[in-house]
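Marked as duplicate of an earlier ticket. Keeping the data here for the record.
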Amino acid sequence: MAAAAADGDASVLVIPSGSGPVPFKDINDGTVPAEHTPRDEDLSSDLVAALPRRQDPIAELLLYQGCWLPKYWVPGIIEFQRRFKPRPDDVILASYPKCGTTWLMALAFAVAARRAYPPAAAGAHEHEHPLRRLHPHDVVPLVEEVFARGDEARLDALPSPRLMSTHLPFTLLPPPVVAAAGSGGCRVVYVCRDPKDMVVSMWHFLRRSSRSEGFSFADLFDAVCDGTAAPGPVWENVLSYWRAAVALPDTVLFLRYEDLLRDTGEGVRRLAKFMGMPFTAAEEAAGAVAAVVELCSLGNMKAQEVNKAGSVAAAGNLTMPRDSFFRKGVAGDWASLMTPEMAVRMDGIFHEKFLGTGFSFA
């Protein structure tokens, strides 16, 4: 179990080596440098300067390796691709934004850490379950943000097994991750969602950002449809993981948000088995799966005080209210904002993009 930090900060813990997974925010093992990891600024700045760009109402976007990305992320993504060294037991949680990212973070952490932190157990201070004292985005780091801030040393200090998340397509993951796929490398879990629900969820999310003025639902809808919404095109994000999961089912697990809603317990079992941590018969009998489901439920996450107030840093100086990550968590909410004509247009675009791939949202 983690112990309180010697400097008296009860919110930062000293983590014994090899005791993962642990929350990213808790990392302070005495060896993490205070300064940011140095970069080859000349190489990345020249590359970034040459990229196509566009301005959307929220951020300036750059087209890097076929993907529209916030400008703030791009130098860090270049460093991520160049410098990241995966461990065999790493688990990367991938998704397009607003497709179940926060829920998947919570579920994966609760599954992986269930022996150190039983999901149904009560506790206090350092013994309290991390998902009751920390926002899921403080528990599982988004690698785009980690490398954009130069916090790689903290990621390196995480004990194994490490959990981390990304919104990048599979094709933009570092070469060691892609090359190791299927040969004992780290595992990747991807969750997708009906794009109509995704765009409505994203609209409600972005309109609560610190820079949402002048941003309309029509703007976002058109950007998703023409493939310029970050980090898009959406269909390329989905298909990159679909193809990887078909080719390498032991390395890439492909989940659907709607399936998780219908039977969260079965999704938790699949996740645990894929991560190499299947539930035992004794755990099943003791209700461990149900305890994970309840801990990570939308109602429970919304009820945690840590998720009600304050903000979470996003790309650059963009901040998001903590409670903005927990809204409805349902399927079919697209009808609340989208006209039938818009739905037909979006369905038609994705149907065309997915032809011949074996995948569909139907």
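See parent ticket for discussion. The chain has a mean pLDDT of 86.
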